[in-house]
Design a protein that fits this description.
The complex is a heterodimer of chains A (about 250) and B (about 70). Chain A is an alpha+beta fold. In chain A, about 60% of the residues lie in helices and about 5% in strands. Chain A folds into two domains: about 140 residues, 2-Layer Sandwich (Zincin-like); about 55 residues, no CATH class. Chain A contains nine helices and four strands; from the N terminus they run αβαβββααααααα. Chain A starts with a helix and ends with a helix. With about 70 residues, chain B is mainly α. The longest helix of chain B is centred in the C-terminal third of the chain and has 29 residues. Classes of the chains: A alpha+beta (about 250), B mainly alpha (about 70). At the A-B interface, helix 6 and helix 9 of A face helix 1 and helix 2 of B.
Chain lengths: ~250, ~70
């Protein structure tokens, strides 16, 4: 019984430490998770972001880039200490207006000051990493190579245990209205044509193999529906609904 | 909802593991104790899955566009 008690205490302490670390370091954890590189102060995009932040009445946020061919972005932090992250694919494939629109969308998210979704994303992200840890644990304890059925089955079993609570955490903390508001704000500042153009490019793009718990942080969901558990992480509104709403509003 | 069905089966398997561990620890199979564990576990599991079902039904986006 002593061993069980020690195990339970260790697990409890690990959970409490994870939650505290997520509350304090969520921004840094997410930036490091995606190997985000900070833009230099003389970068034209940084200058553009400063102008857009000023127009929105916001203090300057940090601008980061991540190497990925897909068109996407996310923001972390709050009004005073925020960071906007763009993929290199977004910089290459979006027009100037569409890229401005994407940055305004993220600025609007920082304006709302809701850090809860990124804290939830970090905690849920750790939960969704556990199946990968289980897979490698199975490999190193002699269940076979990572492409063989036994480790894959163990990974699937652990996923089936941890994906629902991770998805629940993510779904409860994600807000449909904040996304609509951010779309509206982007359309008002950059024009609805640019906003709709950006959303169309997001909709028609290929999937991106990210941690599913982080998907709601991004401007558009890039998870493929090949993995059965990815569907649990698809938060509303869909890109189609967002386009439809912008078209109806005609900002 | 297929994902939730598979998860339910996995959580049921965990109940089996718990009963096996408790039985090995006590070195005796006690039907009453196993039934009590099952009743408590299943009640908690049903409440948990009811919450999951309601939240996911309300909040999951129905369209996925990534290819």
């Amino acid at each position: 019984m002593n061993i069980l008690f020690m195990l339970a205490s260790g697990l409890g302490a690990a959970v409490i430490l994870t939650v505290i670390a997520s509350f304090i370091f969520s921004q840094q954890i997410l930036l490091r998770w995606y190997h985000a590189k900070k833009a230099s102060f003389d970068d034209p995009l940084y200058m553009q972001m400063l102008k857009l932040a000023k127009d929105a009445g916001m203090p300057a946020a940090g601008l980061y880039f991540i190497e990925s061919p897909v068109v996407n972005s996310f923001s972390v932090g709050n009004r005073k200490n925020g960071s906007i992250v763009l993929t290199t694919g977004a910089i290459e494939r979006l027009s100037g207006d569409e890229l401005s629109c994407m940055m305004v969308y993220e600025i609007a998210h920082l304006r709302s000051g809701r850090r809860l979704r990124e804290i939830a994303a970090v905690i849920a992200g750790i939960l969704t990493m556990l199946p990968i840890a289980a897979l490698w644990g199975a490999v190193f304890t002699g269940f076979g190579q990572d492409y063989e059925p036994a480790p894959k089955l163990i990974k699937f079993f652990v996923t089936s245990l941890f994906a629902p609570p991770a998805a629940l955490l993510v779904q409860v903390t994600s807000s449909e209205s904040v996304k609509y508001e951010a779309d509206k704000y982007a359309a008002l500042l950059c024009g609805s044509d640019a906003a709709i153009g950006m959303l169309l490019k997001l909709r028609d793009h290929e999937s991106w193999d990210i941690n599913p718990s982080h998907a709601p942080l991004f401007i558009a969901n890039m998870l493929s529906d090949d993995e059965i558990y990815n569907t649990l992480f698809c938060t509303r509104p869909s890109v189609d609904d967002r386009i439809k709403r912008l078209e109806e509003a005609g900002y | 909802m297929r994902a939730l069905g598979i998860s339910f089966v996995s959580y049921m398997f965990m109940l089996f593991v718990i009963i096996v561990v408790v039985t090995f620890h006590a070195r005796d199979f006690d039907f009453g104790r196993a039934a009590a564990i099952t009743a408590v576990y299943m009640t908690a599991l049903l409440v948990y899955f009811a919450v999951l079902f309601v939240v996911f039904k309300r909040k999951i986006a129905t369209t996925v566009h990534a290819q």
